[in-house]
Write a structure and sequence with these properties.
The structure holds two protein chains of two kinds. By secondary structure, chain A is an all-alpha fold. Helices cover about 80% and strands about 0% of the residues of chain A. The longest helix of chain A is centred in the middle third of the chain and has 30 residues, at about 130-155. Classes of the chains: A mainly alpha, B alpha/beta.
């Protein structure tokens, strides 16, 4: 219990709880719409934004956010205007952006601890300003999901059915891409480019195995994500393991254990 | 002339006028004009690739018309303000999608939906209410098709569109689906427009048939419209045998009906 009295741990727990809720709630739709690779792409692409900010002497997070929003919008437009498969587009754009980030890093002088922290995450160094940003993101995400859950479920199930029911597919898809972009980049600060998409994919993938209805799927995703973060952080503190990696491994353990119990192919 | 068209259109549930659809550079439909009476059952028939599904999707606003268009009781779909239901030919979805029948029906009918309303819709299509908690992916083809009809009915549509509603269903299931449609039409006065390949069913169920093969070939009451000549024109040399098959099918469905080809 002593860890709860450490200020850095309090901030880390709070940021982890907020981030886990946002990523899992959006991850439900990312997984049913087969957008798991989108989260991975956004995370890696944001590296160019971070490198650009460090090179220009700017705060990395706002630049990475702007970069990720451009990435999300770019994917959306290319999907609309070309016949190229979505995963191919994401692969092309994210590797290009990653390559740009690597080249930009070549021009940053000296050792860049911030760059390393964005690569592997630094949940223990989260500041109150980051938590405020995460809280705002969580509130907006909660409002957006409450407002558009019906449209998101119907359009994920069948687009024609959704359109007949009055869903405007294009604005909805764009807003989902932008919401995913923002949340993933905020997660990069906490879990790092390499690990952030795990929280987007693992809890919904696990929840899907043990859910019979969509309502169960949504709530169990969020619950599993929160449990993953809390157990992972405590384990990391006790075992003195890297926090981000321990959180991801905790999520993986949940997934493999519950899939082995309940995930038989029907 | 335009005013006369408008007056006619206002009395019709659907009025398609000089409609054409191009997909890319390919002209799929051209110069299609027909009207559907309110509270009637109407079938669109035609060979594979004749543009039936495209026509239905264009009427629903899922595909744009290149020229012409459709009026719902004399108005555009937006101005009309009524509701439509739609059951697609192939409802492609991820069978592992964790959605129950009840959740689908609630999503379809919106916030005003009550549990009683959902139960009523499920019972209307002949399904037990115990199925409400079943996952969509666990349903059989026939059950899924009926659930899809129930979801299309959930918003109490004025006009119901169905694209080959009996696809992938056995003959008994097919009969049940058409009985449900007739029941809905009689009890609620729902205008029903469906696509079918089964001439026998069309002859027996509908008030009006529309024959399409990229353009409108014929339309009218089935007994007058579905002649050897029109079916041959519609389906080529296979038309005659289709009618024969249709008659046989009718004979099977309704033994009292005289069998012309025996």
């Amino acid at each position: 219990m002593d860890l709860l009295f450490l200020p850095f741990m309090q901030r880390a727990l709070l940021s982890g709880i907020l981030l886990a809720g946002c990523l899992a709630a959006l991850g439900v739709f990312a997984t049913v719409r087969r957008l798991s690779f989108f989260g991975e792409g956004i995370a890696h692409a944001s590296l160019a934004g971070i490198a650009l900010a460090l090179l220009a002497g700017l705060a990395p997070l706002p630049v990475a956010l702007a970069w990720a929003l451009c990435f999300g919008y770019g994917i959306y437009q290319l999907e609309r205007r070309t016949d190229i498969a979505s995963d191919t587009l994401i692969g092309i754009l994210f590797t290009s952006s990653l390559a740009l980030g690597v080249i930009l890093m070549r021009y940053t002088k000296g050792y860049q601890p911030e760059l390393v922290s964005y690569l592997f995450g630094s949940i223990l160094s989260v500041r109150w300003s980051d938590i405020i940003l995460l809280a705002v993101c969580a509130l907006v995400t909660a409002w957006w999901l409450h407002r558009f859950t019906r449209a998101l479920i119907l359009s994920s199930l069948n687009e024609d059915m959704a359109q007949i029911s009055g869903v405007r597919l294009e604005p909805l898809r764009l807003s989902l891409y932008l919401a995913l972009s923002i949340t993933v980049v905020l997660g990069v600060k906490v879990l790092g480019v390499v690990l952030v998409s795990a929280l987007l994919i693992l809890p919904p993938a696990t929840a899907r195995v043990i859910s019979k209805s969509f309502q169960q799927f949504q709530w169990r995703s969020v619950f599993l994500a929160e449990a993953t973060v809390l157990i992972g952080m405590v384990a990391s503190y006790k075992l003195d393991w890297p926090t981000g990696a321990t959180i991801v491994l905790t999520g993986s353990l949940f997934f493999f254990f519950l899939t082995a119990l309940f995930g038989k192919k029907s | 002339m335009r005013a006369r068209f408008q007056k006619i259109a206002e009395t019709k549930a659907l009025f398609v006028e000089k409609a054409a659809v191009c997909l890319g550079d390919i002209s799929v439909l051209e110069d299609i004009t027909f009207a559907v009476e309110p509270k009637s059952i109407c079938a669109i028939i035609g060979p594979n690739g004749s543009g039936k599904t495209t026509l239905m999707k264009a009427m629903l606003g899922l595909i744009p018309f290149t020229s012409g268009g459709v009026l719902f009781f004399g108005k555009s779909k937006e101005e009309w303000g009524g509701t439509v239901g739609y059951v697609a030919q192939r409802f492609s979805f991820d069978r592992t999608f964790p959605l129950t029948v009840k959740e689908l029906l609630v999503l379809s009918c919106g916030k005003t939906c009550t549990h009683g309303h959902i139960q009523e819709k499920l019972q209307e299509v002949g399904l037990p209410i115990t199925l409400l908690h079943a996952r969509l992916g666990t349903l059989s083809g026939g059950q899924l098709q009926r659930v899809l009809i129930a979801q299309a009915l959930a918003r109490n549509p004025d006009i119901l569109f169905l694209d080959e509603p009996s696809t992938g269903i056995d003959t008994t299931g097919e009969q049940t689906i058409y009985s449900i449609l007739k029941h809905l039409n009689r009890t609620h006065g729902t205008t029903i427009l469906f696509i079918s390949h089964d001439i026998g069913v069309v002859s027996d169920v509908v008030d009006q048939v529309i024959c399409v093969n990229r353009r409108l070939l014929c339309e009218g009451p089935p007994k007058k419209t579905l002649t050897d000549a029109t079916l041959s024109e519609l389906y080529g040399s296979a038309g005659g045998s289709r009618l024969e098959h249709g008659e046989r099918h009718l004979q099977w469905m309704n033994p009292k009906r005289p069998h012309h080809h025996s």
